[in-house]
Amino acid sequence: MPSRMTVEVEGREVELSNLDKVLYPSAGFTKAEVIDYYTRVAPAMLPHLRGRPLTRIRYPNGVDGQFFFEKNKPGGTPSWVHTETLPVPGSTLNRENIDFVIVDDLPTLVWVANIASLELHTPQWRLGADPDLLVVDLDPGAPAGLRECCAVAVLMRDRLADDGLACYPKTSGKKGMQLCCPVAGSQDAEIISGYAKRVAEELARLVPGGITARMAKQLRPGKVFIDWSQNAAFKTTVAPYSLRALASPTASAPLTWDEVEAIGTGLSDPRQLSPSEVLARLKSDGDLLSPLLSGGPAVPV
Hints:
The chain is of the alpha+beta class and 301 residues long. The protein has two domains: 4-122, DNA primase, PRIM domain (Alpha-Beta Complex), CATH 3.90.920; 133-236 and 246-271, 2-Layer Sandwich (Alpha-Beta Plaits). The protein is built from six helices and 17 strands. It has helices at residues 31-49, 106-114, 146-162, 189-206, 257-264, 275-285; strands at residues 4-9, 12-17, 22-24, 29-30, 53-58, 68-70, 83-87, 97-102, 117-122, 133-140, 168-171, 177-182, 211-212, 224-227, 237-238, 243-244, 250-251. The strands form five sheets. Strands 5, 6, 7, 8, 9 and 15 form a six-stranded antiparallel beta sheet that branches. It has a five-stranded mixed beta sheet with strand order 11-12-10-14-13, covered by helices on one side. The chain has a two-stranded antiparallel ribbon with strand order 1-2. α1 (31-49) packs across α2 (106-114), α1 crosses α6 and α3 packs across α5 (257-264).
């Protein structure tokens, strides 16, 4: 296989390189397979990426090598890639603004995958708008795991439903999961985050032995941390269908509530999903997270 080649993707020329490089050594999963996965998952993934500034976690030498977070567009970014200059208060690089990449189309997604951006993370808002998503990250502290997260997810689902909010579960692709709720897009991040914090603290008081709403590491062993802070304007969450950088490739993928309940009650084994499993589920079930694209109600204030 040549070290470099140019392919045409929806009318754009995209240069691909080192396609035979193994990015997941224990699984033998190559860069070509990473690009193939993102190409095949694109019809479901792109609607969740469009209009959202992208944070990439790049692994140029594979998941066993050094990695780096990247928000600013890299050198050599093709001229046709959509970028937006946005303020980044509190940047660790002391920059007032960053040129973010916006993945609006398949050529950009293929280009992003080719530069070994295994993980793709986005905020809860789109360009020029208030948040249209409320997201809570359920992060288990060992020995708690995905099973305990699923049990907490059911509690969170029912509590949010009391306020008229529908939420949709997805695996994190690592050890926990997220719940995503479509909201009206008419309230700022502080309001969304404040509401999520109140609900998280309420559930932590209800189940103090199994839930914490506080970030302190020493409080987490054996509990599920409901991370309400993901709704801050500067925070990002792993995007639906993004790969994760574990020893073997997994992806952040939607679950049904029947699956969540079965895992939480011990009827099914908890596990993360492989890229091939995600693609097979998409073929049979479609995008279970598509309701996130249609908006929702305002949160109580």
